[in-house]
Hints:
three-stranded antiparallel β-sheet, alpha+beta, 157 residues
Amino acid sequence: MISKSSAQTLALTELGRDTCPMEWQIKTSGAGLYEFTRDVAAKVTGTGVLTLFVQHTSCSLLIQENADPEVQTDLAAFFDRLVPPSDHPRMSYLRHTYEGPDDMPAHIKAAMLPTSLQIPVISGEMQLGTWQGIYIFEHKTVPHLRRVVGMMVGAVR
Length: 157
């Protein structure tokens, strides 16, 4: 009798399980959401699971609605009110302000929101909903070049 884990390993082997690393560099121009769904879709092949990870501590990754830009505006406004800059009276207890009043609040927002995502992929198509897009959520007010790494695991072509 084959154990469940052995059967899963066998099934993955039969699929031709493989991995495919990927990378994206996203330029931001300050705080806000930046969609890069098409950039990701251009590199995805095969069937499996795509994991995305942002290599920074002051921004986040989100899957969010991409049909109405007011959604992104409202999300940014909500988190700005929830975690205002360190020069706001409510935030006077913050000490990590070396890069300005948005520094520690950016780290707090990144701690509250995802820095990695998993997306199922079937025959080279990410299984996102009709109005879903992949976003970098930049929490800093100045421009940055953000690096996102990805790993596709499954039957990669």
